[in-house]
Amino acid sequence: MVDISRRNIVAGSAVLAAAASCMPAYGFAPPINKPAAGFYRYKVGEIEVTVVNDGVSRMPLTDDFVSNVPKDRVNAALDALFMEKDFYAGPYNPIVVNNGKQLALIDTGTGELGFKGSNGLNGRLMLGLAAAGIDPATIDVVIASHYHGDHINGILKADNTLAFPNAEILVPEPEHKFWMDDGEMSRTTNPRVEAGFRNARRVLTPEVLKRLRTYQTGKEVIAGVTALSSPGHTPGHHSHIISSGNKTVFAQADVTHAPFLFARNPGWHIALDVDPVMAEATRRKIYDMLAADRMTVQGFHYPFPAVAHIEKTSNGYREVMVQWSPVL
Ligand SMILES: [Zn+2]
Fold first, then answer.
1. Which segments of 123-190 does DSSP mark as H helices, in order?
2. Residue 145 alpha carbon to ligand 1 centre in Å
3. Pick from 270, 273, 262, 277: which is nearest to 319 by CA?
């Protein structure tokens, strides 16, 4: 009988290593020592979607990170997921949508500035686009879901020139109105929201504003991509319904942050929400729909490639990640 124990496995691997060292090495190669760029391609009817990973943000878990739940409970959830305690690693996944007429990037990740500031942990979109064979100069439109930095900072390079020099910038009408409103900015008492105002105004340079056009809820932003108001996370936050033929994908942006915490616990309020109560109501409404309709969801903060289905559980929802498909 085979004795499976940790001691035997450790002893076994030592024997293997000794045997390996006696063998001639025909194909020795040094470690590459560079993380792989991530992209994943699939089709929604006639529309081609390329998910391009922008990395993760690794933030220390502050006491108020989930504002209505004690830190201990968040740490217990992370531990149950085999994730490091006291840190939150939130994935970033912009998508490129090709409808046959236009090439659109939905949300940008943190950009070159983010890449430098995080030592390459995020701001990886350009590496992913290169790996996916997409030239940034061929992007016709950049569509923003909302004005948080992880969704718009990549509009600019580190020197504040345009990262997508030929792209029109399409933004939700109420989102633009909120973050550009001096009265709203002066009334805010939340330092995170205040920082959001400063950052949005930094990114929207005169060059960006020249190319900027607003879009409305319920309308097509480009052919095959319809905007849907999903407010709360920010006042003008929008999701995008990608549809072609009888296929539909719901690109949710930040209806939830990472699903392993915030879809499973829809009542948890992430500190980044401008209006957490409204964000929760939006989340429950949309997730009830996703579960009932068995709709595919593309989540900006889902683990790469960030495509999933949603099932309803006794106290929330659970993401069921779509299997990697080698065919379109
Ligand atoms: Zn976000």
1. 125-132, 149-152, 173-179, 182-187
2. 9
3. 262
47 Cα–ligand 1 center, Å = 24
Alpha-carbon distance of 41 to 208, in angstroms, equals 29
**Ligand 1 centre and the CA of 254: distance in Å?**
5
How far does the centroid of ligand 1 lie from the alpha carbon of residue 239, in Å?
Answer: 12
Using 50, 70 and 90 to split pLDDT, how confident is the model at 19?
low
Rounded Cα distance, 167 and 103, in Å: 9
- Across-strand partners of 204? none
Domain boundaries, the chain: 45-321
* CB distance 294 to 248 below 8 Å: no
80 CA to middle of ligand 1, Å?
Answer: 24
- The reported pLDDT for the residue numbered 3 is 76
What pTM value is reported for the model?
A: 0.94
For the chain, the straight-line distance linking the first and the last C-alpha, in angstroms and rounded, comes to 45
In this structure, the dihedral spanned by the alpha carbons of residues 102, 123, 170 and 200, taken in order and rounded to 10 degrees, is: -170
Enter the tokens of residue 57. 């943000």
CA of 105 to the centre of ligand 1 (A): 15
CATH fold for domain 45-321: Metallo-beta-lactamase; Chain A (3.60.15)
